[in-house]
Design a protein that fits this description.
Length: about 575
């Protein structure tokens, strides 16, 4: 890119807050598969060679597991399992028998799987990047060349890539990796989720960043998605002054979430593994708003046993002591297929057997899980709540609540991710004690836009007024579906004739400080997010009273576009928050 009088700018999608200036390190591109590779002379020997290459990649991924933490552990384990998939090697063997060379056969076999994953959508579409990473590393080893991916970092740098493989992202050293910028990827990609857990700024879908030469100095803002290339001295001084102000603001206070008028809003962490929970539990976070139990299932060919689950749940509960932990039961199905619960090919998996629908199809999985959670609660004395994913009807909510209470779990809830559940929330909430809104899936289904598509970012924006309307409909219904004060949970709001059933948000949008205020104005009682996002949200709450939050929500809801809704809320925000969120 050519330099001009003003710094060149690229605008991507900011997915992990923070701003930094640093020099670019570019991820090594994959080794190309030879276009003229001769066919295998000995297909059996070639199959064995490919098998050794794949096992070598899997072994390296196993090694990286020991260096990773949080969700990265489960992602690496699942990727290693794909490298060891007998079906993949069998496909390679067939292609070698038809005259392909080893690298060509491996490439063709993996492309077939990637096409299937992409067509399936949902969780499998997310795993396409992982599988391509397996291919690239195995091809390099077959050809005797260095692995593609992130080179060793000897100094702090901003990592730029087409898309960063989870095998690289999961073991990043946050002391040297200043930030991540990718040209591909969506707002809920693995890069986005893992960067948020690491607490480093990240931008995805930044078209043009691969043209930036390695070593070039750039400035990035993980909130706005702005990349500034070769910033001049004036810009650097302004940037550094604002960064210092952000640092001062972020140091102000810890502890529970509290508005300026003294009212409380619980701040929880999202966790996916025992290691994740132990890390979050050592902080002053108020509890867990989303424990994604499916990470215990993804890398297995058989379901975890009752005893295995009890041990894992107990470890998570013990990490939080007397603080509440909200457990989401297995969120799986056609878009997150489990080898031990295969339901066959579906025409539209995102609308198929997933979440509670799969659990109704395989009640044995749910019954074992609920009993294990109940045993872990009894053993640890934990304050645990349990909720079901992808609930669409009051019948589904009642079915789940009955099963959970039968095994002794007293606080039962549902996820609001399906538009029908939001529209009929009064009925869906009637048989349960609380609800948690998953903004990622709710936005995807309301806007009919694949949540993994960076090109649909405008539709996937949680500031869309339609999303705000459905959140408001859910909390209004919760205020009508009251419970007695004696059974009120920790995240309650005043209701007529008792206490409104609490409604929290555990989607990524909860970690946006400005959006968090709007959620509070919509009568959301708890916010759950990646742990590093909590300080900024805590600060935002402390600067505003509930009346201002309500005014923000009303201003956003009467807007006609997502951009207008954002601007309307921002105009009412405290100057310190506007400074924190300002673009570079």
């Amino acid at each position: 890119m050519t330099k001009s009088a003003l710094p060149a700018e690229i605008l991507g999608l900011g997915v992990s807050a923070g701003s930094v200036i640093g020099r670019v390190v570019r991820v090594n591109p994959p080794v190309p598969v030879p276009s003229d590779e001769p066919g295998a002379v000995d297909p059996l020997a070639a199959t064995e060679a490919v098998g050794r290459a794949l096992e070598s990649v899997a072994t390296d991924l196993d090694r990286r597991v020991s260096l990773a933490s949080g969700d990265g552990v489960a992602i690496l384990q699942a990727t290693a399992m794909m490298a060891r998939d007998p079906a993949l090697l069998k496909s390679v063997e067939v292609k070698l028998g038809l005259g392909s060379g080893p690298a060509t056969a491996l490439d063709a076999a993996i492309r077939e799987f990637v096409e299937m994953f992409t067509a399936t959508g949902g969780y499998l579409a997310e795993r396409a990047t992982d599988l391509l990473d397996v291919r690239d590393r195995a091809v390099a080893r077959l050809l005797g060349l260095p692995d593609p991916g992130l080179p060793p970092l000897n100094a702090p740098a901003i990592i730029v890539a087409l898309d960063l493989a989870p095998s690289d992202t999961a073991i990043l050293n946050s002391a040297l990796a200043l930030a991540l910028v990718t040209e591909a990827g969506g707002p809920t990609s693995h890069t986005a989720i893992l960067a948020a857990q690491l607490g480093i700024p990240a931008i995805v879908h930044a078209i043009g960043v691969l043209q930036i030469e390695p070593g070039t100095e750039i400035a990035i803002d993980g909130t706005s998605g702005l990349v500034v290339i070769a910033p001049d001295a004036t810009f650097r001084a302004q940037f550094q002054a604002r960064a210092r102000r952000r640092e001062v603001l972020m140091r102000q206070g810890g502890g529970p979430g509290r508005l300026a008028d003294g009212s409380t809003v619980s701040l929880y962490a999202n966790v996916g593994t025992v290691a994740d929970a132990e890390h979050a539990g050592a902080s002053d976070v108020e509890g867990v708003g989303l424990f994604r139990t499916e990470f215990m299932f993804l890398d297995r060919t058989t379901a975890p046993t009752f005893d295995e689950q009890v041990l894992s749940y107990s470890a998570v509960f013990e990490a939080f002591g007397s603080r509440p932990v909200t457990v989401r039961t297995l969120d799986a199905g056609a878009d997150k297929p489990m080898l031990f619960a295969e339901q066959g090919k579906e025409a539209n998996p995102a609308l198929g057997l997933r979440g509670i629908r799969l659990l109704q199809h395989r009640p044995d999985l749910l019954q074992t899980q609920l009993k294990a959670i109940a045993m872990a609660v009894e053993t640890t004395g934990a304050r645990a709540r349990v909720m079901a994913p992808m609930v669409a009807t009051s019948e589904e909510a009642a079915w789940f609540a009955d099963l959970a209470r039968t095994v002794g779990l007293t606080t039962v809830g549902v996820m609001i991710e399906v538009p029908s559940a939001a529209l009929r929330a009064r009925h869906v909430l009637a048989p349960v004690d609380f609800a948690s809104i998953g903004t990622n899936d709710l936005t995807q289904y309301v806007m009919a836009a694949d949540r993994m598509s960076g090109g649909l970012a405008a539709l996937l924006n949680p500031w869309q007024p339609a999303i705000l309307d459905l959140i408001a409909a859910t909390t209004a219904a919760a205020a009508q579906s009251v419970e007695s004060p004696s059974s009120a949970g920790p995240d309650t709001l005043p209701g007529v004739g008792g206490t409104a059933k609490p409604v929290g948000v555990c989607g990524e949008a909860a970690g946006d400080p400005l959006y968090a205020l709007v959620l509070v104005g919509l009568h959301i009682s708890s916010l759950s997010m990646a742990l590093p996002k909590i300080p900024a949200v805590r600060l935002a709450l402390s600067l505003h009273d509930r009346g201002t939050c309500v005014a923000m929500a009303e201003a956003a809801r009467v807007s006609t576009t997502a951009a207008d809704a954002h601007k309307a809320a921002q105009r009412l925000a405290h100057p310190d928050l506007r400074s924190l969120l300002a673009k570079l």
